[in-house]
Amino acid sequence: MDLFSNIALGLNTALSTTNLFYCFIGVFIGTIIGVIPGVGAISAISMLLPITFYLEPTTALIMLGGIWYGTTYGGSIAAILLNIPGTPANAVTCMDGHPMARQGRGGVALLTAALSSFAGGSIGILLLMLFGPVIATYALSFGSAEYFALMVMGLVAASTISDGSAIKGLAMVVLGILFGCVGADIYTGTPRFNFGTLELTDAISLVALAMGIFGVSEVIASVRNVHTSSIDPKSVTFRAMKPTRDEVKRSAGPVLRGSSIGAFFGALPGTGPSVAAFIAYAAEKRISRHPEKFGKGAVEGIAAPESANNSADQTAFIPTLSLGIPGSPTMALMLGALMIHGIAPGPSLVNEQPSLFWGLIMSFWIGNVMLVILNVPLISVWVRLLTIPYHLLYPAVLVFICIGTYSVHQSSFEVGLVVFFGFIGYMMRILDWPAAPLLLGFVLGPLMEEHFRRAMLLSRGDFMTFIDRPISATVMAITACLLIWGVVAALRERRKVKFRNAE
Amino acid sequence: MKKLIAALGVATALTLAPQIAAAQDFPAQPITIVVPFAAGGPTDTVTRLVAQAMSQDLGQQVVVENVGGAGGTLGAARVAQAEANGYTLLLHHIGMATTATLYRELPYNAIEDFEHVGLVTEVPMVMVGRPDLEANSMEEVVAYVRENGEDVMYANAGIGAASHLCGLLFMDAVDTQMTTIPYQGTGPALTDLMGGQVDLMCDQTTNTTNQIRDGSIKGFAVTVPERLDALPDIATAAESGLDGFEVTIWHGVYAPKGTPEDVVARLSQSLQVALQDETVIERFADLGTAPSSQEDATPEALKAKLEAEINLWRPIIEAAGVYAN
């Protein structure tokens, strides 16, 4: 069969000593920079891009790809153990991962994250392998109206993402959208909220915002209890990683749903692992019978986002490899690595460079296996992080956050932004304002605006475009159902409470 | 007091020494070329290829640094303010000329704050359309645009992008307004063109050649005087009766103002050597372009080009009334 000969060809390429070696280098570097907050895949890849001059194009991409999905694995470690997301895509993992670690179940949390990531990655790879070109063609039928409808659905689904006051959650979403408005309007070039600086005309970087709100504020908040290590390192040994049977059962569904959600958003250019993780978490909380457990250490709250962001990492290669169009800045870097070697990616890549295409896909799988091997038995090594006294660990974390943020755009201005958001994040903590909705608003807000306005331009101002187009109409209908369901559920809950009170 | 004077003398000598040395045995340390765009894009690729070849000629590593943002003006500003010793250079494209009008306030002057080293390459542009557009030639596209006017959706990769400039020039040439749909970058714009969400776009051959070849978008005309080897079936704009519609994305190397003349000469000479390098020629061809000629890779040619282009684009951008700040 054709597929099998392709897989054989791919394995042949991916299993060559050189490629195995660079695959390992890639996932190893990826894991490390993933664990280090602030330093993300994009800075590592752009720093390593010149080295790929001297490598075979396939080998180069295998290494860069390894860094890309490796960071998402590593990022969950910092999120769970330190409550600081290693990459923005791991921000949601903090919400249940860190509480679990505090309850002495950090080992289970780390194992769940690693295995969910592996499952998500594998499902993503399968889809990329079997249906890559089909999905790519289908993704082309998503215009701005469809994107907008999807974003609305995302926001509605995610409206319950955090516990506590609904007003506070809403206020944070709005604040996030406001921060997202900073920068030049892409339609007219008019600068918004840039206070006359050229730096702010390019919008606030996601890394600076996420590292400030989650990272710096965590460090400030920990200053007062540097002497009490909150997590017992003994709780994260190999033995303590064994989950209960109930936890395994509870994770299976979220992993499958998370992977599908991740695969979908990864394949759409413009959205990516961060959006996928948020939506997967929100969806899981929506359909859970115990939504009140989320945010307090529910294993589903790790399984869903971690499988989603890794699945999205893999399917992000679908538009890149099948259409020759990068869906994100990191993917653009990968295309750049190919272009430097004189390979122009496009729909014909699969036929013209079969060993590159299939070798790369097979290397993804090998890399994912390597990551599980790196993560699971070596967890005790990562956990040593926690035995580092806080008065040494936290300053180091701050330094890495600054280096990482600086390296994205070589901009010291953005380091200043991290400080600014660090203080905002700390204020939010004191006043008990949730951070996740802010990040969600920041990510989805500008996307919604861009697509809404483009849909309006394309339809020449006709609002019916959202209902006339079949895909958009379907998504809008689902959103309406979600809203109605939410209202009905809330009413029923209220009646129950009344009933109970009457008794 | 004597000691102080002596110390001052030594200090002055020390600070002056590197500058004198710079002129004599340049280069004595690695050189940084700033690309004012993200890594991986066409300009970055061009720079890395040239930097590689220049390293061999200069005997010093030429490092590429990406300082993206604000349409390339942040990177340009950084080089304008850098020390004028030839160790910090800028490789910028046509945006060097157009941002002079697009940005009403810039922290530098494109002509006065730089020494000009030379032109690197001129990348042709090509007018492309969605795969199911009824037009099959540039003449039919012009007719289609004239007939449908603002119902025609023209995509571009954002304000100041090559595709934005090309669209302005095209609308000027056919004297008809289309609806402009800006995107954040070429990728999403091309995706929507392939998916048939928008009608037309005009972009560098580096981004479009493969998609035209395998039929996922239609190619109509190239914006240079002669047909391209990579796309022999695509007519030129002039062949299609659009004489004024000629535009290339030219790239040039710049140094901060005040860089010693012999250092600029050495850099220019090195650039000329790099542009004759076989790998550079080969890889440029893969990108659908060719290195600039030896006469063009000179300070005079770049300065003349920059001045001419600033004057060409100013009225077009002002007439369109779009500004980036």
Automatic annotation (TrEMBL), chain A:
UniProt keyword annotation of Lipid biosynthesis present: no
Keyword field: Membrane, Transmembrane, Transmembrane helix
Domain of life: Bacteria
Ribosomal protein is among the record's keywords: no
Membrane-crossing residue ranges in chain numbering: 20-49, 61-85, 106-129, 135-158, 170-188, 200-221, 261-283, 323-344, 356-382, 388-408, 415-431, 471-491
Residue span, DUF112 domain: 20-440
Entry-linked PANTHER family: TRICARBOXYLIC TRANSPORT PROTEIN
Descriptive protein name: Tripartite tricarboxylate transporter permease
From TrEMBL, chain B:
Cross-referenced SUPFAM superfamilies: Periplasmic binding protein-like II (SSF53850)
Keywords: Signal
Signal peptide span: 1-23
PANTHER family for the chain: BLR1237 PROTEIN, TRICARBOXYLATE-BINDING PROTEIN
Family: Belongs to the UPF0065 (bug) family.
Name this polypeptide is given: Tripartite tricarboxylate transporter substrate binding protein BugD
Organism per entry: Neoaquamicrobium microcysteis
UniProt lineage: Bacteria, Pseudomonadati, Pseudomonadota, Alphaproteobacteria, Hyphomicrobiales
